[in-house]
Amino acid sequence: MLLALSMIYAGLSHAADTPADAPETPMQTVTVTGNADDTAYTTRSTKSAGKLDLSLRETPQSVSVVTRALMDDFKLDNINSVLANSTGVTVEKVETSRTYYTARGFDVVNFQYDGVGMPQVFGNVQGDIDTALYERIDIVRGANGLMASTGNPSATVNFIRKRPTATTTASASVSLGSWNNRRIEGDVSTRLNESGTVNGRAVLVGQDSDSYLDRYSPKKTVAYAVVEAQLAKDTLLTVGHSYESNRSKGVMWGALPLYYTDGSPTNYPVSTSTSANWSRWDTTNNTTFAELRQNLGQGWTVQGTLSYITDKSDSNLLYVYGTPNKVVGGGLYSYPSQYASNQKQTLADISVDGKFNLGGRQHDLSFGYSWSRSKLEDLSRYGQGIGTEMLGQTAFDGSYPMPSFDAGTEGSNYEDRRNTVYIAARFNLADDVKVLTGLNSTRAKSNGNAYGESKYKSASKTTPYVGVVYDINRELSAYASHTAIFNPQSEVDATGMPLDPVKGKTTEAGLKAALFDNKLNASGAIFKTQQDNTAEQAGTIGAKAYYRGVNAESQGYEFDLSGELSKGWQASAGLTRLTSLKGDDGKAVRTFIPRTTLHLNTTYRIPALPALKVGGTLAWQSETSVDQTDTIRTVQASYATLGLMARYEIDKHLSLSVNLNNVTDNKHLTSLYWTQAYYAAPRNGSATLAWSY
């Protein structure tokens, strides 16, 4: 993989375009926003891996970026489609309204907004997170010991919000797609006073659709407003709010059974669903944030960020379980429930960064403190008729009657607090050698109960980070890094004591290249990731379960490329190979994760017809499986999906785009994360008319 990177570095021709102009406002040059080139598939710098603003080549860890241009070209309108087009990330769509993500063999639970972490309560994402609010999304793979206080050694997803621009800009688009999918989107940024010291931006999205799945009908509304005010020459205040609602009918809770009573695999039509006519799942997110950035002089700045987030969920659900009879039907049973949750999060972060001189050289330093509090209340109201057999094919036709939800109640009420102190420094040891090092010291504590089980946990740990970058020449670097992370857990052992925290660590090394005046970034890496002491149920004492800690390790290599290959030719590509993912006994674990994944997105502007851009996307993954019983295994064979796009610029303001997905109409399951699954969307497409100013 490193050899392949060297060959690409040596073989590609130099692009002749001059770099885009820097932003006009001094404060904006230090605010992490999108690439100045709105057609680029890469970025010039990021803070997502080490608190310091570094180029991808200077960052001693694997980082992928999904830019606004890539999202627009391929209609990546939600986080599932973005991460499915990211190197090394698998999207585990277990239901219509809940999704898990994995990287390097482990679950992704670390999500950030402009570098400020949002502790995950559930370990999965509910609803359909829209991407219209973001200029770029960064994915840092492996443990992220500087940026994330707790979590898994998998990846950190950092959403970079759109910010006001120095000049007036506006855009609007209307999309029509398969299954009556309709989407309207608008984005306006302008000065709010004559002097230009106050600027604002607003984004609005409305989307309504039917689905290839029987009875499923999602609807989404998104609104975002942000204001930047230059309070003084060196003081910038930013205040913003986002609102996102998902109103989905005909949702699945759980999915389809995957084998019959005789052990043979099921093979339903792609549209098959176990939802009831009355099932629904509504989610609402409100996020308010404020940032105050102060230039202290001599290259030093201080920034404080405060965020308040509420996530609410309300649903009527039907879970279908059991093993169907292939000949006469039946064998499946009902489990209706109403579920509601209310999560509130408050987060604060203050950081200082700048440069200092030592030993005749200039070095970089960042340090700070972050605090978070998350409160969760949820309630399940169980429906009458749990365990009723669904005869014939009634499990799939939506006809199960809506019961009264008064058979019993259970729920959760707990609070999670985290305090973190961090420091990171990049030492310029020589012209061609840089060392990035730091510490993250976190105390995490939770109290409360969930469904009759205690959620108490308390742990403190200091995790290190060290990375070295050696510049082979002006465009090619070699790097190595090691970092760790931990995650408290509330599961108890046979003595009733909570298990020690999960511990994760990542070691990796590789080559990185920044080519063509940083318009193309490429990297190749080998890695080893360990996650120790993850809770696994070991038995029961009476009606109470107890757990033991298990260990797992993954090894592999990755290749990532993003940017401009030549004038008018953009590409984003990635290959990940897990050469090993095994447990304590040396046996393969988490076989639902593909050992090899490949993605390629590319567009090309036709020189003879510069108004026309064409492109394609290809994704491939290797075989996955899940053991249903000691003798029955469900296997999803390897598969590839192909997408195509074309955009024609009618004039400098108006364009028409067409996107086709799953062109070969490949039939495959969305995930084997659970022992149930459903089918991915068949061939589909959309047309978008877009206007910009």
TrEMBL record:
Membrane topology: Multi-pass membrane protein
A GO biological process held by the record: siderophore transport
Positions of the TonB-dependent receptor plug domain: 56-154
Keywords: Cell outer membrane, Ion transport, Iron, Iron transport, Membrane, Receptor, Signal, TonB box, Transmembrane, Transmembrane beta strand, Transport
A GO CC annotation given for this chain: cell outer membrane
Cross-referenced PROSITE patterns: TONB_DEPENDENT_REC_3
InterPro entries, per database record: Beta-barrel_TonB, Beta-barrel_TonB_sf, Plug_dom, Plug_dom_sf, TonB-dep_rcpt-like, TonB_sidphr_rcpt
Superkingdom: Bacteria
Signal peptide start-end: 1-15
GO molecular function: siderophore uptake transmembrane transporter activity; signaling receptor activity
Record's subcellular location: Cell outer membrane
Primary location: membrane
Segments forming domain TonB-dependent receptor-like beta-barrel: 260-663
Similarity comment: Belongs to the TonB-dependent receptor family.
PANTHER family xrefs: FERRICHROME IRON RECEPTOR-RELATED, HYDROXAMATE SIDEROPHORE RECEPTOR FHUE
NCBIfam families referenced in this protein's UniProt entry, alphabetically: TonB-siderophor (TIGR01783)
Name of the molecule in the record: TonB-dependent siderophore receptor
Organism of origin: Duganella flavida
